[in-house]
Amino acid sequence: MKNDEIRRTLRFLQWTALTFILTLGLLLAYDMYRNRAPIKQAQNELAALKQQDLADAKLAQTVRDLDYLYRATYFQTKDKQRRGVLLLGIAFFVLCGLFGAEMFWFAPKLKVPRGTASVPEKERRQLLVFASCGIVVLAIALAVLRLTLVPAAEKKTVPGTSAASGDAGSQAQPGEVKGIPTEPIDLMAALEAERAQWPQFRGSTLPNSNALPANWDFQEKWTSPIELPGNNSPVIWDDLVFLSGGDGKNHAVFCYDANSGELKWKTEAPPAAQLPEVTDDTGYAAPTPCVDSKRVYAVFASGEVLCLGHDGATLWHRQLPDPVIMYGYASSPLLMGDKLVIQYDLDEKQTVFALNVFTGETVWQTERDSAPSWSSPKGVVVDGKGMVFTAGNRLAELFDLETGRQLWSQECMGGEVAASASARDGKIFFSNSGAFTGAFRASDGEILFQNDDSPAPDVASAVLSGGQYLLFGSGGTIIAIDAADGKELYEEDLDNGFYSSPVEVGGKIVAVDLDGVLYKFEPDEDRIETEGKYELGKKVVCVPAFHKGNIILRTTENELICLEAKP
Amino acid sequence: MTQLPVLLAAQARFPAPEFESYSLPQMSLEELAADSVLWRVLVLCIFLAAGSVSFYKWRSRKAMLAYSLAGLAVFGFLFASCPCPVGMFQNVAQGIADGSYIQPGVLLLFAIPLAASLFVGRIFCGGACPLGAIQELLHWKSVFVPRPLDRILRMVPVLLLLIFTVCAMYGIGFPLCYLEPYLPVFLLDFATPFAILSAVFLIVGLFISRPFCRYVCPYGVLLRFFSLFSMLKPRITAAECVNCRLCEQGCPNGAVLPPENAGNAVQRRTGSRRLSMLVACIPFALFAGGLFGYFCAPVLSSFHRDVRLLHELDAGIRSEAVEAFESTETTESELRARVVKLENGILLASTAAGVLFGAAVMAELIAEARRRKEEEIYTIDPSLCFCCGRCYAACPLERKEKHHEK
What we know:
The complex is a heterodimer. Chain A is an alpha+beta fold. Chain A is built from four helices and 32 strands.
């Protein structure tokens, strides 16, 4: 056989093999497609029959027959396909062999070289052009991937957007989750009940009804060490004192007996997903816990929210998105009936969360177009309707407690906002150095007055007392402004400044300065009268708590001290 | 062929019948796996030795074709695409990263071709690799990719190697296995969409030589690097080159390099300036690569099962994974902690991989920009040569020499 004939034969065989592969491949694909639907249908029918009562002998026999038929059909189809695929594989191999045989027997003909010789120098120039194009293509590909995949990826890795969390303003259905019973909580009844307690940061939302000590000459009833540091203040329900603590490793909630100071329990939070960087001044447990008649809620700088029963049992735990914020997260949560409101102002994103107190699920979350702040939200009640006031860099806003809908906003704030507001008679008062000093009307957000002249406090929150709004500065200055028109009434200078926010209890103002001097003030028309002064001798930055005529304080030396009036 | 029926039977998965008084026997694959891998290692060694003799000693294109055909039959169809250049490096990367056990046979299959490349170049690619063999044999008419474009496209496997090493190290899985286009042919399982990918590569391979080896294969990157230091390097002819350019045009893989002309002073100055510029760009390239890797990290993380599970939990999706997770004792907090740790690890590894990629790109550009030794002959780049022997067949002097020998 001549070479040409061999080559022609090989070419013919190659084309035959190729045609065979294509034809068989198409037939197999068609066969697979054709059999898919009937097999699936038989499978479904069989599954439906098996759901019925198979005690019926006739039905059982039908199932057996159908099962046999189904399996027989399935395996026959598979066998047929297997044989076809095996043939296809053999054809592939034969085709490779035929190609190889042609190359094997017939060496390439020596031809006159095509074109001109390669010029390395020219190719090098082209290479740089291609490289530049490659970089552009790669950058575009990455950008497309990021746009299509990463928003989802970031969303999915943000801890804490729970199942119930929906769009801003959406409301989850109440119900039972994981067997935890929920019961309706009447907002006004709950707020009324907490007046006799000391349930959250700066006491109760409505005016507190605790009594002050009989006199201002104290003795230490008990002192207890606190295992973990924290700048949060103690909160009290009945005879239980709660506070939290945390360091770079552990976070925990502590419960003490208000009468004896005995540590009743300590519950550690689960390990945080990620610990943010915080300054020593802020620490990992700056937010003051909240407590109601059954549960205590603590928020940590790690973004963890922990809900415990009064016996220390963990009821639920949430991890909010990583709280990356300068200095560390410090805003205290607000308890309003069945919702735990958290002002979650981070460097990147500012959100207000309302969590279901029974389950920890997000009832609503509303993003705020603001800037990072450390202020705590303030509960406002007007005509029995609950609202939440937040102050942040740029915006003062009021939200509906039930839906999270923004009721109004005022663009009047600025700087580093750390203080929290006071509210009374449909008015909201706020003062923070570099931000704003004034009052808003709760119904529509109108600014009732604004005082730009009086120096405002930078850490401690101002307090309302009678017709005065009192600003306690960290330099030791107390300024009273008229709660009606915002005019400065008087100014008093004390020896030391205040980080601890003053509170109004029993018609008096109680404040503790940085040196641990505990004051009782009575504001007059033109001056503030110091009715009591007690030197604790230990530095205090937290807000004092009140329990049956005693005062409970947390010192910076990790001690919890209960002061009682000397007989 | 003893395993073929087993493999075919394995395809016919079907729910077991619900017997009332009979328990199905348990299958065991241990014996098969242990024996077969060591057996394959031995066969691979024999193949590499035979290929080296064919290529360096006999310098025969025909012998290399026979080598490819035998490789296709044995490693492709008989061993069902083993050793697999796609799966091997991922197995090893995962084993090294998480400290899990790597079967010695698998490690040997991974290491032997690399070790061989230090002595005889990319003989493994020539025909012992089933993917290389099928591409070698199913190549019909060569369409040449311009050399500069070829060099840039050859960076794709580097990128794939780095990305999928990170994937394997952090348990994202072996997604590159879905890009292994010839597996359906070897396993005789033409399920879509893999069959479509397979068809595309087979058709492209008819015209562009070894598209997978050149522009996808991550294991080839390692072989390319190792073969730079090969003891034996392929050369076109022992006789004096007459610069006929037939070898260059006979090599569809762009491995034959033209001689470096002396060039004039202007060219030299331009070349020096270009080289200096590229060297100066190295820190920027490393930084840009790192940045690229940094931005790639969230994309990679999003493919991890834990990250996906967390997303489903957060989105309230009741998937099977969520139901399975809820039946475990792992808490959501622990899962979040694990995901954060994982994401941090991927971020670091991806950034490092990006820096490496930047370095690889610059190395390629600098290597190409550098003037070669001024020789008047065509030479072979050992790192790009797949040892197919086409240049031997194309060289008239080689033929003449062989004719004289006969």
